Amino acid sequence: xxxxxxxxxxxxxxxxxxxxxxxxxxxxxxxxxxxxxxxxxxxxxxxxxxxxxxxxxxxxxxxxxxxxxxxxxxxxxxxxxxxxxxxxxxxxxxxxxxxxxxxxxxxxxxxxxxxxxxxxxxxxxxxxxxxxxxxxxxxxxxxxxxxxxxxxxxxxxxxxxxxxxxxxxxxxxxxxxxxxxxxxxxxxxxxxxxxxxxxxxxxxxxxxxxxxxxxxxxxxxxxxxxxxxxxxxxxxxxxxxxxxxxxxxxxxxxxxxxxx
Length: 260
Prior knowledge:
Layout lengths: L4 H16 L14 E6 L3 H14 L4 E4 L15 H9 L3 E4 L15 H14 L7 E3 L7 H10 L3 E3 L38 H8 L8 E5 L14 H15 L4 H8 L2
Parallel strand pairs: 1-2, 1-6, 2-3, 4-5
């Protein structure tokens, strides 16, 4: 079994199990043009660049926090816990991305609970509630991790766009509540160098007919990891597109984008 087919089998098996429990029929209607903004890895520019924009336009967002990489020593590129607490006080959600950003694998699964609880301990020490949502580090998923996340008490967990879309495209499926397992919510877009505005519009335009476009950002711009950088040009044009969505002016553009 290849690396790409294994995650696909996991997603398919968990999807079937979730649907057969009859939960798909118990959902409230999802409004069109619903987009969810998420930011990973505790990057400083999320506080200095993204936060003022989010507040100005009254956008909500979830920030998935890890203490990995150079978080403890490099405060040019990573937030302080005081800044993370300020995000919480601003009304944004603080989510769990594990302490050390280790991929969740069969080998590391036994360490997952301690990795999660370390972030929750730090949150509580800084006046932030225990996390209720999770982002899979590196967007890698394993079936055993799903049950572990549920046992920990998470309501939702976000993954990447693989295996449905190749990593290099920066794209993924939209989230379909009742169809997608809540521990395997896909990212419709993961902007990185080379990610075009047209791809951005294509991803968010699919937020209709009960589907939600979940966007996964890292640095805006990125410091230590330039391969997941979001450029200022895309940030400005994407911000305009999101404003169109919020103000209900994107309907015609969405129709043209998918040809319907």
